[in-house]
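ligand=4'-deoxy-4'-aminopyridoxal-5'-phosphate
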Amino acid sequence: MRYYDNVVELIGNTPLVRLRNVAAGLPAMVLAKMEYLNPGGSVKDRIAVRMVDAAEKSGVLRPGGTIVEPTSGNTGVGLALVAQLRGYRCVFVCPDKVSEDKRNVLKAYGAEVVVCPTAVAPEDSRSYYNVSDRLANEIPGAWKPDQYSNPNNPLSHYETTGPEIWEQTEGRITHFVAGVGTGGTISGTGRYLKEVSGGRVRIIGADPEGSVYSGGSGRPYLVEGVGEDFWPINYDRDICDDIIEVSDKESFLLTRRLAREEGLLVGGSCGMAAVAATRVAEQAGPEDVVVVLLPDGGRGYLSKIFDDGWMARYGFLSAGGAESTVRELL
Ligand code: PMP
């Protein structure tokens, strides 16, 4: 019989798929690393299992313990998967702006979700940050992974994502492109690829307009999971050779094309990274191989990026485009 003992064993070893249409005509080939094929649906499964393994080893997480983390999405799902298998309780803290659908996904995996008001200052005792700290201190046996500073976040990518890409491309990768949130993906994968190639592979971060990584002040943008208004410990400032700034509009339009033209229903940060990858491929040569990491799937964004009305409200799609003409004909 051929089977896995549990879903945690399915984490990692995601395939590369060539972007045939959105990168058509560019000098270099663009290959996408399909992280939504992880069992929890995102790249964050990799860091969840590595952070829990390390916490068990060091003794900060003991049998029957509770994982407390401020997260509203992918990291929560990854942690919940691992916690379920190993008998830990999960308490996730999220701001009230997070959609009910996203909270329900976490609950569906058996996690408890504590909702905090968004409209309070970070110092306020009701803020997302303070509530998660308080719960981590007050719940007996609680452990807070803290993906922004936990070294096992970039390490998981140094040990898995980087070597997988190197082997899959038989060492032919010339450019690696990824969005930057906590910085774990780009710092860990980038460090491995630089080391193994003797510094030959170029590492390019993709960042939403307004985020600090591309020189912004932290002003708001709509693409989720990437960009920051502070510099996390897990972002290694020595790794990126270049940072490409991408607007919300460009990110979302390419996200929609990935679904329609490549059969890849992925999230907005994937569109953002793919925009940066096509810009890199435009400037590259025919021997170059650009790998772009696509962090998650698109089902969590159906009422936003994939909704024509939502896109039109923000001015990302003209109200009278080809799509509405088709609707009128129907
Ligand atoms: N895209 C999405 C959807 C994410 O949730 C994250 C994680 N915050 C990222 C990209 C960025 O990954 P990292 O935190 O490793 O920089």
